[in-house]
Specification:
Layout: H1 3-25, H2 30-40, H3 46-55, H4 58-66, H5 73-109, H6 124-141
């Protein structure tokens, strides 16, 4: 079994754990970010990883600063760690796919449940789906 396949399977396990924590407590433990960053060091391509770490989470940070309570610091650190793991393009496309899932799911689910919606939901499971899809696609086609 290739080391990259093992790396992606471990990444999937960490994403599942982070998603569980976010759904249950709305808090992503710092150890999640550390584990993703450590996994990223396996066969790393430094330049795309550092660019991803810096640039991809910037829009999330801007949203968090612009609208208080819209996004937590754990979400931003999660995006940064995953973008470091995947590189700039992987992190960017993973974020786009994940945010597309957020929009689609919330449009469909909350369309008829407006009275129950309190404005807060776990974003990591959606982002995680995007990152895992892109991660496995990148390893298959590259």
């Amino acid at each position: 079994m290739s080391i990259l396949i093992v790396k992606n399977i471990l990444f999937l396990i960490v994403i599942i754990y982070a998603s569980y924590c976010d759904i249950k407590t709305r808090i992503i433990p710092d150890k999640v970010h550390v584990m993703i960053m450590i996994l990223a060091l396996i066969k790393i391509d430094w330049i795309p990883s550092i660019i991803g770490l810096i640039l991809v989470p910037l829009p999330f940070l801007v949203v968090a600063l612009y609208k208080e309570g819209s996004m937590g610091g754990g979400d931003i650190k999660f995006v940064a760690a995953c973008s470091f793991f995947m590189g700039f393009y992987g992190g960017l496309f993973g974020s786009i796919i994940g945010l597309s899932f957020v929009i689609l799911t919330n449009m469909l689910y909350f369309r008829y449940k407006v009275a129950e919606y309190n404005g807060k939901f776990a974003i990591v499971p959606y982002l995680g789906i995007g990152y895992v899809l892109i991660s496995f696609l990148l390893k298959i086609y590259l």
